[in-house]
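HOLO CASE FILE
Compound: D-xylitol-5-phosphate
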Amino acid sequence: MPRIEIAPSMLSADFARLGEEVAAIEAAGADRVHWDVMDGQFVPNLTFGPMVVAATRPHSTLPFEAHLMVLAADNLLGEYIAAGCERIVVHPEACPHLHRTLGNIAAQGAKPAVALNPATPLTAVEHVLHMVDMVMVMTVNPGFGGQRYIAEMEPKIRALRDTITARGLAVDIEVDGGIAPATVAQVAAAGANVYVAGNAVFRDPRGYAAPIDELRAGGAAGYAD
Ligand code: DX5
Ligand code: ZN
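Model generated. Tokens follow.
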């Protein structure tokens, strides 16, 4: 079984205290920090520039990943690597030269990853699966936090896990959108092992550790290869 990892989404954090927030989720047991980079064109919102991410880098030892929901990923990815992101997640829907883009990420010493919108089929990444360390299956339409989980994505997650296994690849499956203790068992049973959670972590009245622990326990208990 791949390692279960919890990646709080900073889109739901307190934007006035981002440095404190990355430190707090690390103290609460998170495995990585998920930066939702939005350009107001590929998706409606406009969020974190590389300078903002860089400003928080000294406040956590956790790996940072940049989820680039942007039209100009090729122009921006180097800046997020320089800002301290070890993983760059790009959308094939916005990258006409995806093979080259993933190669550029690796050439700059970062881990390449791809994210699939709900309507995008797995065939979009079948010829680059060997180039990535992770595939993200979006379980909401990108652009916002706090949306409802799209359960119809479970067969897609299962088909992706079966493909990864059949090809003998060591590729994580991350799910992103509406992931919470109430939905984590379903995505784990389908074969996902990395869980992005924004509202479920940052809006929990019990603090950050309780939902992170529940997501990890629920994922481990429900995971099926
Ligand atoms: C949506 C982002 C997600 C979102 C997750 O475009 O990619 O990472 O912030 O937030 P929740 O967990 O609240 O759905
Ligand atoms: Zn995201």
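CASE NOTES: The mean pLDDT is 98. The helical segments are 18-27, 50-56, 73-82, 98-107, 154-166, 184-190, 199-202, 209-222.
CLOSED: yes
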